[in-house]
Design goal:
By secondary structure, the protein is an all-beta fold. The protein has strands spanning 4-7, 10-13, 18-24, 32-39, 46-51, 58-60, 68-73, 78-83, 92-100, 112-113, 117-122. The strands form 2 sheets. Strands 2, 4, 5, 6, 9, 10 and 11 form a 7-stranded mixed beta sheet that branches. A 4-stranded antiparallel beta sheet has the order 1-3-8-7, with no helix packed on it.
Length: 123
């Protein structure tokens, strides 16, 4: 069982930056692939970024490539999402998720979810 708690959301002007954190409980954090997803009002939850258990490989949806960076610190049981050059269309609730085994960009493949953190980007 893994419990995930996101933090770091807030309100920021377009062009600004935020860093989201996701703290995980449990001793086996390093064995989980981790992902970030987001859900805007009236829209389906969508993939943002993911990282393998080792942290050696990362993947991004096209709309955030070059602006967002996912990373993890297995010693701290934490995964991060650094978000730069934020745009109003990045406004959403951001969720982190954990998956046993190989990573995936499909939300239904993930086993554990956090409660989400709100990110609002004003124009």
């Amino acid at each position: 069982q893994v419990q995930l708690v996101e933090s770091g959301g807030g309100v920021v002007q377009a062009g600004g930056s935020l860093r989201l954190s996701c703290a995980a409980s449990g001793r086996t954090f390093s064995s989980y692939a981790m992902g970030w997803f987001r859900q805007a009002p009236g829209k389906e939850r969508e993939f943002v970024a993911r990282i393998t258990w080792s942290g050696h490989n990362t993947y991004y949806t096209d709309s955030v490539k070059g602006r967002f960076t996912i990373s993890r610190d297995n010693a701290k049981n934490t995964v991060y999402l650094q978000m730069n050059s934020l745009k109003p269309e990045d406004t959403a609730v951001y969720y982190c998720a954990a998956k046993v085994g190989f990573g995936s960009s499909r939300m239904y493949d993930y086993d554990y979810w956090g409660q989400g953190t709100q990110v609002t980007v004003s124009s």
